[in-house]
Design goal:
It is built from eight helices and twelve strands. It is an alpha/beta fold. It has one domain: TIM Barrel. Bound molecules: iron/sulfur cluster.
Length: 265
Amino acid sequence: MKLLQELRSSLNRLFVFELSDHSRVEAVFYRGDTLCLSTQVGCALGCPFCISGADGLRRNLSAEEILGQYELLRSALPVRRIAFAGIGEPLMNWEQVETAFWHFKKSGLGVSFYTTGYPTSKLRRLLQLPHRGVTISLHAVSEKKRKALLPHAGRLQDLLQALRETLKELPKRKRKRISLAYLLLKGVNDGEQDLRAFGELVRELGLSATLLRYNPTVKTYQDVEEEEYEKAFLLLRSYGIRVTLSTRFRKDSLGGCGTLTIRRV
Ligand code: SF4
């Protein structure tokens, strides 16, 4: 495994790695302390708005390859936090991801996860770990809409059941670190009814919300206007829940959410 290329924007540093079979994955250093790592070469979940999974899943990364992304950069970067938020669904490669997780923890790094929550058996295990945060992509509160946006992420009903059951077992301080993400897509899931249903669900589960803006990488989907974004934020806040917004790092054209790829030229 070797570092092939580094690209920089004013905010993020993106690293392209070549693996021993010539596959490529990417990692991003952002916020001055966080390294976002890939867990798979491609992704099987096929979310139509994301280019990371555009070619399907090629293969899982081994724990060594997940750790290798950090090892190759650690002497050059002040990494204090790891985010499993790059290419791939961490729960679909759970054993290798969990091995890497414990290694990072032993090295004193905080570790957070971004996941669709599928498969739910692994989500239950993830939520019990001493993580620094788990953000679960919901993006829609109706079965039909979520199926269109996350076609291979299982049934929403199963995800919610797993969440309800697992949350009951977690202490309050752990529940505080779990968030449901909602990626606002213009004309798709940005209606008032959709957002109200999301706000109600987040309140009912006692979690927080992460309201994300879209990095336009696939032409079919569009980001909302600033004004709409603010309105959505205020509407969700009216449910008395904590709402985290997209940071400028996540919205950056280089290395922002959904922009990593296994075929960068
Ligand atoms: S958004 Fe995440 S889960 Fe969906 S295809 Fe992209 S990498 Fe996979």
